[in-house]
Amino acid sequence: MSTLLVIRHGQASFGAANYDVLSELGERQSQELGRYLARAGVRADAVYSGPLKRQVDTASLLSDAPQFPEAQVEPRFSEFPAFRIVALGLPALIEAGAFEPERAAAFTAAAHDPVGERRMFETMFRTVMRAWAEGDPRLAAALAELESFADFRRRVLSGLHDVMRAHGRGQTVVIVTSAGTVGASLAAALSLSPWESIKASLVVANTAMTRFKYRDVEDITLDAFNTVPHLQRRALLTLR
Questions:
Q1: Average pLDDT of 173-180?
Q2: CA-to-CA distance for 2 and 6, rounded, in angstroms?
Q3: For an engineered disulfide with 230, which of 15, 32, 54, 190 has Cβ 3.0 to 4.6 Å away?
């Protein structure tokens, strides 16, 4: 069998003007992962990365290890536009009367201050993401120009299938991507519903590893989910 190791990028710059930049901690997490994999003797036959800066930079830090070749950028492993979905989807749900006025105000405040209103932001984020994943018709007009969850999952699975076809028996392939793509990968192995896929992605830690075994595109099995043996100190463990 072959091994597919799907890794979430290091911590990005949550709450900053440009989220798509690794924080200092994100760089440290990526370096710790590279060192751990080197000690564990993990060798990669191929490394792929999504096209986002946080994905590419994480893969680059991993590729500093001699047992990892330079990453190939694969656009299909990009993340869905979560912040754009929230920016357009939340007002649409509020306008449609999805929330009581007090709740709508709290969600709006959290959207404008995700760091200061962290807990409410997480609740709001889950709510909007579920509506998007399940194809809530109240979002149809607002999100018409954005990728649907169904299209996102098809994109990710297309990339996974091509990678698996390219790397046959006994090979180890690393994919550096984002949490949503990890969730979509789980769906391929576990037949998860759209919301189950999103829920799983919300608990994926930065630089966490999810490992699959596969024989072909129709025979993929989850071997380990969301493991972080390289992050021994609690201060290194982050979700956002």
A1: 96
A2: 13
A3: 32
